[in-house]
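Title: Comparing notes on inverse folding

I've been comparing how different people in this forum approach sequence design from structure. To keep things fair, I'm posting one structure and asking everyone to reply with a full sequence. Here's the target:
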């Protein structure tokens, strides 16, 4: 172990492997385990790929250019770390302490940063020549300028006062994120979901919020000069709120139609409606054959719902909870399901009688970063759909059609048995 140019002790890859392996034994309760405690060390350029390192302590260390893809760093201490240019794609950083860290130019796309803390912190700076023998302390705000967070989850994270100039937050889930006083000037927040985010005093000048979800976020409290907000989804209008009772009655009529063999009631027509005022009132509902073309269902809870033969063509289902939903034969052509939760959902053909079936159609849909673990996608049609960053781990995919689909960074994809 030597002292690098950063004034920190420089570890070799071999030395690091021994420490990480000991921590993994510690986590699993195996003999010889020891928690990783690496303060003020130089890990620049090293590999920490797909390692299980919850609660590890790396405070004050340098990860400049390190490769940390898919590692589990839940609750890890990264206080004051230098993570410039680090590769943190798909890394688990839930509830991690990242205060005062520098993430300039780091790649955190598809990372899980739920409830992570990025605020300022008092940092110990080693002397460039004398190292830890002579240190000084300074208060430093979190920095993530030009960092890439595309498709990441930042729900409930604390970004107060952080500088993220020109950072890329496109298609991120940022529900309840604290962004008070943060500098997001020229940042890309296109399609980001910022429901109930605190953006008080946040600098959004020149930022791209095109198509972003801003429900519950007080845009008037932020600086928005030259901010692009074309197509942004804001709070439901007073008119939409006043229609909630009528929408609920339509859903009840659909339920009755399902339960009495179509003798009374009728399939609901929600075409073009804003269903957000219903929140979780459609959870487990029987909405077979309903139509919600072009409707807004952002963040709606439809878990366990009966949606056989439903038509969601062109609908906005971003962040929608569809866990365990029965979507046999549903039509979702051109729908936006970015960050939707389809875990355990059934997207299989619907029998129509006479040997005929209606497959689920997702042609041209936007399904970026969808969670579809353990879903049944048998014979589903994904032609021309955008599934970049989707997680299909454990999903049944027999005879599904992927013609022309965008499949970059899809996890768990199985193209065997693709429809001819």
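Reply #1:
Here's my take.
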């Amino acid at each position: 172990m030597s002292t690098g140019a950063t004034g920190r002790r420089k570890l070799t890859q071999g030395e690091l492997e021994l420490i990480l392996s000991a921590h993994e034994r510690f986590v699993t309760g195996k003999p010889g385990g020891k928690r990783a405690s690496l303060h003020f060390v130089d890990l620049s350029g090293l590999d920490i790929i797909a390692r299980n390192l919850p609660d590890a302590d790396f405070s004050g260390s340098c990860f400049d250019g390190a490769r940390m893809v898919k590692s589990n760093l839940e609750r890890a201490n990264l206080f004051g770390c230098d993570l410039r240019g680090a590769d943190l794609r798909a890394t688990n950083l839930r509830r991690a302490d990242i205060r005062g860290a520098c993430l300039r130019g780091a790649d955190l796309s598809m990372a899980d940063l739920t409830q992570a803390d990025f605020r300022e912190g008092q940092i110990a700076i080693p002397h460039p020549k004398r190292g830890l023998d002579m240190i000084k302390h300074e208060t430093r705000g979190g920095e993530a300028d030009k960092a890439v967070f595309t498709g990441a989850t930042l729900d409930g994270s604390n970004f107060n006062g952080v500088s993220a100039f020109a950072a890329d937050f496109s298609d991120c889930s940022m529900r309840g994120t604290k962004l008070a006083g943060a500098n997001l000037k020229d940042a890309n927040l296109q399609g980001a979901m910022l429901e109930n985010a605190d953006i008080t005093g946040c600098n959004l000048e020149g930022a791209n919020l095109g198509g972003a979800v801003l429900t519950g976020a007080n845009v008037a409290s932020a600086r928005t000069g030259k901010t692009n907000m074309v197509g942004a989804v804001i709070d439901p209008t007073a008119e939409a709120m006043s229609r909630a009772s009528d929408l609920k009655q339509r859903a009840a009529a659909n339920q009755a139609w399902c339960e009495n063999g179509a003798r009374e009631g009728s399939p609901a027509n929600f075409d073009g409606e804003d269903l957000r005022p219903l929140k979780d009132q459609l959870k487990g509902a029987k909405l077979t054959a309903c139509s919600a073309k072009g409707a807004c269902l952002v963040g709606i809870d439809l878990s366990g719902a009966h949606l056989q033969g439903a038509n969601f063509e062109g609908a906005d289902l971003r962040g929608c909870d569809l866990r365990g939903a029965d979507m046999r034969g549903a039509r979702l052509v051109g729908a936006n399901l970015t960050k939707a939760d389809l875990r355990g959902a059934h997207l299989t053909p619907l029998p129509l009688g006479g040997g005929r079936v209606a497959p689920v159609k997702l042609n041209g849909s936007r399904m970026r970063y969808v969670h579809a673990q353990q879903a049944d996608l048998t014979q589903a049609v994904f032609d021309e759909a955008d599934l970049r960053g989707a997680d299909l781990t454990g999903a049944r995919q027999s005879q599904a059609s992927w013609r022309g689909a965008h499949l970059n960074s899809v996890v768990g994809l199985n193209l065997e048995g693709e429809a001819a």
